[in-house]
Amino acid sequence: MSILILSGPSGSGKSTLCSAIMKKIPNVYFSISSTTRKPREGEKNGREYHFLSQEEFLKDIEEGNFLEWAQVHSNYYGTSLKPVEEAIDEGKIVVFDVDVQGHHNIKKYYGKLATSVFVTTPSKSVLAERLKGRRTDNEEVIEMRLMHAYNEMKHIDEFDFLIVNDEIQTATEAILSIVQSLRYAQRLEDTQKLLNEWLG
Ligand code: ADP
Ligand code: 5GP
To answer: What does CATH list as the number for 2-32+93-199?
Structure first.
């Protein structure tokens, strides 16, 4: 089993890179978070997110359904544990797109099984351009995301890998090679099996 956590400022390209992973690599499960944020144009309930009311979200917290949850840019976001555990049982690579708080908590929960990648842009001004170019958020929301970006950047050192998403082709190659490498990560259960077989 492998877990890949993508974090980084909003607009840095995490969703774009996740889509590339899903398109190119088999046996990957993308963890669909729940959120109280309103759906953007083109987003579908159950595909990008499970869109919940605040009441529904608080009920999920109370019932202990979340592996982790956090408040980001004044909305709630959370990862349900059950589908993640099911995907792990099926031997899938589980990919998370979460903020730095989510990264911290998922790493704490899965320990060495989790590999993390911080995705960012070459500069704050490029980030601003991308957020504006995406045309999904109004000026106020973009301003809040840019303000929050620096708080995310301060956590870069906590991650295993860093991708500066300048040229999309290069960034895509980088994320795909990181995911491919997970297939060769040392896993205690695998090495024990290999040792037994090797001894004959
Ligand atoms: P995030 O999921 O991190 O919020 P997105 O994947 O939505 O970010 O990317 C933000 C915007 O930037 C989108 O419009 C996306 O198409 C665009 N984008 C992503 N990577 C690049 C890149 N390398 N060069 C130019 N535009 C990009
Ligand atoms: P957006 O509103 O742009 O889709 O996401 C905003 C931020 O919330 C991004 O940094 C994204 O990674 C983060 N996020 C999305 N889902 C979760 C989640 O389940 N948990 C946490 N902690 N953060 C999340």
So the answer is: 3.40.50.300
